[in-house]
Amino acid sequence: MEDLIYSADKQQPSSPLTNPWSKKKESSKSPKPKLVGGFVLVHAGAGYHSESKAKEYKLVCKRACQRAVDQLKAGALAVEAVAAALIELEDSPFTNAGMGSNLNLAGEIECDASIMDGKSLHYGAVGAISGIKNPVLVANRLLSEAQRGKLSAGRIPPCFLVGRGAQDWAVNHGISPCPSEKMATKFSLSAYKRNKRKMELAEKMDTGHNQRKKRRQSTENENGSGCLDTVGAVVVDLEGNVAAAVSSGGLAMKHPGRVGQTMIRKLLKRSCRVECPAAAINSFVSLLMKPKTKEFFPSCVELIGYPHENAAHYGCGCWAENACNMNPYSTAVSTSGCGEHLIRTMLARECSAAMQSEDAHQALLEAMQNKFISSPFLANEDRVLGGVIVLRCCRCLEAPPSQNIQGLLVEFLWSHTTESMCVGYMSAQDSKAKGWRHILCLSVLQVSN
Questions:
Q1: What angle do CA 105, 340, 125 make, to 5 degrees?
Q2: Could you say which of 3, 255, 320, 444 would form a disulfide bridge with 361 (CB–CB 3.0 to 4.6 Å)?
């Protein structure tokens, strides 16, 4: 685990960040000591990430981390920092969120996003929203408006809006609209045209089960461009507040108006129920997958007819909750995967609850196995597809020698049953973020000294 309360170097007296551990008395004209701390963990989706674009995936995760850390260093709370990270992820043309999102059947972009503040436990979400470049901004504004209390005449403020109503609300609250055509990229437009041709061809062909299955497998093998899935982030600030968020552009060729976890989910690999023998490698704990079949079919944004993400659904796409009398740890979770699977299992909330156990990585593995992979709610599913990033923290009395000041201890982990998952992380003390692209494993990373 890592102490996330940091200070400036003692050898740099000119720095505006003074050493919080110092006992020296400050003069009345000296600035008050300022603690700099916090941590961010982001993901660019659990699914299939093209090897040719691996560098771009990692880079966007690093940029998202840096943007969140910049906010934390400026004194922002966790919920503001997590929104900043999501904006960076949504603005990337390589992610299926915000700019460059998948097009639906009507050739339009509809996005979902949600955000949760662990301090207030407030939540904001939008679904199937069009014409807004950064859906997480709308979700965050819904959250902040709800924190202000009731509306006129005692009306309860909304926490989840969809479709045209969500767009109108956003514009009325100062969020600039962006035409759907400007949000589409060359890649998303070409994918839409290819999918449309395939649909037209499919309508002319025999729709028998065997032929459908054959065409689906062929399509999965052909589409090596593979795209990512829902993007998300979890953050803890200096004060120990946590927040989580997710955003998604949805499944390609989805029906207009469909709402997912955060939005519609993309196709993932043909992987399945997993048995999880643990193997420790340095600071990693990896669970090697044992699929029912030796065949793996990478999926991508172009696949049609698969379930969607649950980015907008409460308790499914993200969860954040500060420590309280009943829970010793603050926890934040962001998910990605097959929306129906995440919705039926309430995976984000289940993982958050599991993090109250003493052994974090074992608790996450058991939650993924018992609450997701082997869940009775998914008993009839051939493939159980999903991934999570998890952060937990607690206050600790351990501090530098002879100093009576509390520290903040943080653990972060991630796990996925999909072919790959791209993540990045950074603390407020780090000079640069780190990015990872994990393949064919359920993975957990734990920070240690």
A1: 75
A2: 444
Per annotation, catalytic residue among 219, 230, 335, 417: 230
CB atoms within 10 A of CB 191: 23
Report d(CA 91, CA 108) in Å as an integer. Answer: 17
Residue type, 241: N
**To the nearest 10°, the Cα dihedral for 295, 364, 111, 85?**
-120
Predicted model pTM: 0.77
Of residues 279 and 183, more confidently modeled: 183
Residue 417: active-site member = no
14 burial type by CB count under 10 A (0-12 exposed, 13-18 middle, 19+ buried):
exposed
364/361 Cα distance (integer angstroms)? 5
Q: Which of 244, 237, 298, 234 is nearest to 268 (CA)?
A: 298
pLDDT over threshold 80, residue 399? no
CA–CA separation, 59 vs 434, rounded Å? 9
Q: Residues 415, 233, 343, CA angle at the centre, nearest 5°? A: 60
**Spatial distance between the Cα atoms of 142 and 122, rounded to a whole number of angstroms:** 9
DSSP annotation of 223: -
Is 204 buried (19+), middle (13-18) or exposed (0-12) by CB count in 10 A?
exposed
Calpha distance 136→176 (Å, rounded) = 13
Query: How much helix, strand and coil, in percent to the nearest 5, is found in the chain?
Result: 30, 25, 45
Asked if residue 393 lies in contact with residue 410, where contact means CB atoms within 8 angstroms, the answer is yes
CA distance 198 to 203: 9
CB count in 10 Å sphere of residue 198: 16
Q: Which amino acid is at 46?
A: A
Integer CA distances (angstroms), 405 to 10, 36, 136, 160, 336, in order: 18, 14, 36, 40, 37
What is d(CA 391, CA 232) in angstroms, rounded to the nearest whole number? 12
Task: Report the alpha-carbon distance of residue 384 to residue 122 in Å, rounded.
Answer: 30
Band (244; pLDDT cuts 50, 70, 90):
very high
Task: With beta carbons less than 8 A apart as the criterion, state whether 332 and 319 touch.
Answer: yes
432 exposure class (CB count in 10 Å sphere: 0-12, 13-18, 19+):
exposed
